[in-house]
C-alpha cells in the first residue's frame, strides 16, 4: 500500500482488498514509526474494519482510518491530554465528534500526541516527549495538535482531528505541510473535548487535501444540544468544493506581515495571492489596527479560562492521587506533581489575572480588547470575502529552541490567535517552502462562511502543486 | 510584576503546592509574561463592551425531562478510591 492516501484512495483500496487490510497496514506503519506521533493505538480498530467488511457498519467514511487528538474523549480508549494528571484515564463516553465518526463508519485508529492540555506551539510539553516533524526530525511539528498533523504528513493516517484554541490546528498543519481547518466557533460540538479555554476552542480536521477536510466536516459539523454554544447552522461543506474564484475579493492585512515574518514565508504567501489574481480573484490591502494587542488579550483570556477549567483535575474523580492529611493538601500535591511546568504557569497566571484586585486590570481589559479585535474583522469583511496571511511567521523551529523562554514561544502565535478571539473560521493550506520546510497560507472567512473558505482553498489546490510535496521529496 | 509571596498566595488559591525555589523561579518567569500583558494598558477601551463570548446567544434552555445518564459503575472506574458506590476523598477540614 502506498503512503499518503486521500479518503477516495482509501475507499478504492478497500473496494479492491478489504477494510481490514487497510487498517492492518496503517497499524503496521504506526508500529514502525520513528516520529512519536501516537500516544496509543486502538484495540478496536481492526474489529471496526472487519464489521465494515461484513457490511455491519456503513457510511460516508466506512473503513477510513482517522487519528484523534488525545484531548477528545473516546469511550474505552485512554484519553490523557498528554498529561500525567490523566494517566490511566479511560473515558466512559464518546465525544460528539467520535459518535458521529463511528456512525459514519470511520475507524478510530489511535490517539495523537499534543502539548499538555493543548498549551503550546511545539508538542514539547507532552508527558510522552516531543513528536518529530516528518520533514526534519530535529524540528518540532508545531502544536498543540502536533501529533495529528505529523501522522498525516508522515502517511500514518489519511485524516485526523485536532483542536484549535489559538492556532493549534493551523500551526502544526503549516509546520507539517498539511491542510487544517478551524471551524467557526459553534460549528462543531465541543461535547467530550476536554476544555482548555472554552470560549476560544473548536475541534477541526487535518488532511492531505481540502476535499478530505470537507468530507470530515460534513460528518462532524452541526448542532448538538449537549454543547450550549453549538449553533444550528447547516453548511454543506462538500458542495463548496468548486474550482472557481472569479470575482473573489481578498483582503490582505498589513499587520500580519509585520517584523519577525521570515522572508521566504512572506514570498510564498505573496506568490499565492498573485496566483489567486491570475485565477480571477482580486485583492486589496486592509488595516486591522488592533491585531498587535490580540496576543496579549488572547493569552490573558486563555489562561484565565484554563485556571477555571483545569480546577477539576484534583485527584478526586480521575487520575493519580497524591498523599495528604486533608483534601486541600492532597489536591495541591496531586496538581504540583502531575501537571507539567507550562500548565502550572498558565494556571497560576490565570488565577492571578482573575484574583481580587487584578480582575479589571487584566481579564476585563482583555475582554474589551477582544471586542476591538472582533470589530476589525467585521470591518474587513464588509469589503472582502476572505482574508489571506501567513499561518505562521516562520517555518518549524528546532526542538529545544524555545523551551526556556515561554514568551518567545507565545509570540509565534501572533497570526493565529485573532481568529479565535473573533470566532471566525480559517484554514491553513500548503503554499510553498522556506529552506526545505513547508509554509502555510492562512485563509480567513466570515462567521459560518466556511463554504467560501473551502472554495478558495480547493481552487488553490486544483491550480497548484504545493499540497503534493511530501517529506523527503521536497524540491 | 509578581512577587514571590504573591506566587505562593496564588498557588494556594489554585491548589498547586509550590516550594521556595519554585516560587522564586515562577516570580521571574511569570513577571515577564505579565509585563507583556501590560501592553493592553495602552489601548483606549473607554465605553467598549467586553466580549465574553462570540456566539450571539444568551440563555440556552432545554425541557426539564429525565434522560438516560452514564452508569454509576462506569463513572466510578476512574477514581482512586471508591466506597459503597461513592467517590471517597480525604476529609476537607
From TrEMBL, chain A:
Pfam families: Amidase
Subunit structure: Heterotrimer of A, B and C subunits.
Biological role: Allows the formation of correctly charged Gln-tRNA(Gln) through the transamidation of misacylated Glu-tRNA(Gln) in organisms which lack glutaminyl-tRNA synthetase. The reaction takes place in the presence of glutamine and ATP through an activated gamma-phospho-Glu-tRNA(Gln).
Keyword Protein biosynthesis: yes
Listed name of the protein: Glutamyl-tRNA(Gln) amidotransferase subunit A
InterPro entries assigned: Amidase (IPR000120), Amidase_CS (IPR020556), Amidase_dom (IPR023631), AS_sf (IPR036928), GatA (IPR004412)
UniProt keyword Ligase present: yes
Annotated family: Belongs to the amidase family. GatA subfamily.
Gene3D superfamilies given in the database record: Amidase signature (AS) domain
UniProt domain Amidase: residue ranges: 21-453
Active-site positions on this chain: 69 (charge relay system), 144 (charge relay system), 168 (acyl-ester intermediate)
Catalytic activity as recorded in UniProt: L-glutamyl-tRNA(Gln) + L-glutamine + ATP + H2O = L-glutaminyl-tRNA(Gln) + L-glutamate + ADP + phosphate + H(+)
Swiss-Prot/TrEMBL keywords: ATP-binding, Ligase, Nucleotide-binding, Protein biosynthesis
GO MF, any single term: glutaminyl-tRNA synthase (glutamine-hydrolyzing) activity
GO cellular component terms attached to this protein's record: glutamyl-tRNA(Gln) amidotransferase complex
Gene: gatA
EC number: 6.3.5.7
Naturally occurring in which organism (per UniProt): Methanococcoides alaskense
GO biological process per UniProt: translation
SUPFAM superfamilies (alphabetical): Amidase signature (AS) enzymes (SSF75304)
From TrEMBL, chain B:
Keyword Cell division (UniProt): no
Protein EC: 6.3.5.-
InterPro entries the record matches: Asp/Glu-ADT_sf_sub_c, GatC
EC class of the enzyme, as a word: ligase
One Gene Ontology molecular-function label: glutaminyl-tRNA synthase (glutamine-hydrolyzing) activity
GO-annotated biological processes: glutaminyl-tRNAGln biosynthesis via transamidation; regulation of translational fidelity; translation
Reactions performed catalytically: L-aspartyl-tRNA(Asn) + L-glutamine + ATP + H2O = L-asparaginyl-tRNA(Asn) + L-glutamate + ADP + phosphate + 2 H(+); L-glutamyl-tRNA(Gln) + L-glutamine + ATP + H2O = L-glutaminyl-tRNA(Gln) + L-glutamate + ADP + phosphate + H(+)
Keyword Ion transport: no
This protein's UniProt keywords: ATP-binding, Ligase, Nucleotide-binding, Protein biosynthesis
A Pfam family: GatC
Function: Allows the formation of correctly charged Asn-tRNA(Asn) or Gln-tRNA(Gln) through the transamidation of misacylated Asp-tRNA(Asn) or Glu-tRNA(Gln) in organisms which lack either or both of asparaginyl-tRNA or glutaminyl-tRNA synthetases. The reaction takes place in the presence of glutamine and ATP through an activated phospho-Asp-tRNA(Asn) or phospho-Glu-tRNA(Gln).
Subunit structure: Heterotrimer of A, B and C subunits.
Family classification: Belongs to the GatC family.
Name recorded for this polypeptide: Aspartyl/glutamyl-tRNA(Asn/Gln) amidotransferase subunit C
Amino acid at each position: 500500500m502506498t503512503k499518503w492516501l486521500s479518503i477516495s484512495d482509501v475507499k478504492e483500496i478497500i473496494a479492491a482488498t478489504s477494510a481490514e487490510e487497510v487498517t492492518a497496514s496503517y497499524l503496521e506503519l504506526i508500529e514502525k514509526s520513528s516520529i512519536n506521533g501516537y500516544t496509543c493505538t486502538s484495540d478496536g480498530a481492526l474489529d471496526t474494519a472487519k464489521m465494515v467488511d461484513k457490511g455491519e457498519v456503513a457510511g460516508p467514511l466506512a473503513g477510513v482510518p482517522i487519528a484523534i487528538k488525545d484531548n477528545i474523549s473516546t469511550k474505552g480508549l485512554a484519553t490523557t491530554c498528554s498529561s500525567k494528571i490523566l494517566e490511566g484515564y479511560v473515558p466512559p463516553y464518546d465525544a460528539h465528534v467520535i459518535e458521529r465518526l463511528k456512525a459514519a463508519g470511520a475507524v478510530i485508529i489511535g490517539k495523537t500526541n499534543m502539548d499538555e492540555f493543548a498549551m503550546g506551539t511545539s508538542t514539547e510539553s507532552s508527558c510522552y516527549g516531543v513528536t518529530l516533524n516528518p520533514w526534519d526530525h530535529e524540528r518540532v511539528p508545531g502544536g498543540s495538535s502536533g501529533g495529528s498533523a505529523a501522522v498525516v504528513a508522515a502517511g500514518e493516517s489519511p485524516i485526523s482531528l485536532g483542536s484549535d484554541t489559538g492556532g493549534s490546528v493551523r500551526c502544526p498543519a503549516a509546520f507539517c505541510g498539511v491542510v487544517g481547518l478551524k471551524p467557526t466557533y459553534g460549528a462543531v460540538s465541543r461535547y467530550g473535548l476536554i476544555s482548555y479555554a472554552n470560549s476560544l476552542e473548536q475541534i477541526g480536521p487535518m488532511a492531505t487535501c481540502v476535499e478530505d477536510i470537507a468530507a470530515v466536516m460534513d460528518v462532524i459539523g452541526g448542532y448538538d444540544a449537549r454543547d450550549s454554544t453549538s449553533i444550528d447552522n447547516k453548511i454543506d461543506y462538500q458542495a463548496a468544493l468548486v474550482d472557481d474564484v472569479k470575482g473573489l475579493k481578498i483582503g490582505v492585512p498589513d499587520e500580519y506581515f509585520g517584523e519577525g515574518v521570515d522572508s521566504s514565508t512572506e514570498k510564498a504567501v505573496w506568490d499565492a495571492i498573485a496566483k489567486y489574481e491570475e485565477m480571477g480573484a482580486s485583492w486589496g490591502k486592509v488595516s486591522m489596527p488592533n491585531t498587535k494587542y490580540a496576543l496579549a488579550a488572547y493569552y490573558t483570556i486563555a489562561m484565565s479560562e484554563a485556571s477555571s477549567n483545569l480546577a477539576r483535575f484534583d485527584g478526586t474523580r480521575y487520575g493519580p492521587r497524591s498523599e495528604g492529611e486533608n483534601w486541600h493538601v492532597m489536591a495541591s500535591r496531586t496538581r504540583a506533581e502531575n501537571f507539567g511546568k507550562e500548565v502550572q504557569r498558565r494556571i497560576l497566571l490565570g488565577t492571578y489575572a482573575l484574583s481580587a484586585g487584578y480582575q479589571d486590570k487584566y481579564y476585563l481589559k482583555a475582554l474589551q480588547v477582544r471586542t476591538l479585535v472582533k470589530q476589525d474583522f467585521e470591518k474587513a469583511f464588509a469589503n472582502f470575502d476572505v482574508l489571506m496571511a501567513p499561518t505562521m511567521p516562520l517555518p518549524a523551529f528546532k526542538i529545544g529552541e524555545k523551551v526556556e523562554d515561554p514568551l518567545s514561544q507565545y509570540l509565534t502565535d501572533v497570526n493565529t490567535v485573532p481568529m479565535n478571539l473573533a470566532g471566525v473560521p480559517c484554514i491553513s493550506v500548503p503554499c510553498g517552502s522556506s529552506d526545505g520546510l513547508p509554509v502555510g497560507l492562512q485563509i480567513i472567512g466570515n462567521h459560518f462562511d466556511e463554504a467560501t473558505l473551502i472554495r478558495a482553498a480547493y481552487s488553490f489546490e486544483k491550480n497548484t502543486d504545493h499540497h503534493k510535496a511530501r517529506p523527503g521529496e521536497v524540491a | 510584576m509578581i512577587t514571590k509571596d504573591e506566587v505562593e498566595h496564588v498557588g494556594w488559591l489554585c491548589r498547586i503546592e509550590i516550594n521556595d525555589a519554585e516560587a522564586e523561579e515562577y516570580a521571574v518567569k511569570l513577571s515577564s509574561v505579565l509585563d507583556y500583558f501590560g501592553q493592553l494598558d495602552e489601548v483606549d477601551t473607554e465605553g467598549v463592551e467586553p466580549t465574553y463570548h462570540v456566539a450571539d446567544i444568551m440563555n440556552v434552555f432545554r425541557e426539564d425531562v429525565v434522560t438516560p445518564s452514564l452508569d454509576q459503575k462506569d463513572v466510578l472506574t476512574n477514581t482512586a478510591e471508591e466506597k459503597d458506590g461513592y467517590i471517597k476523598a480525604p476529609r476537607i477540614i
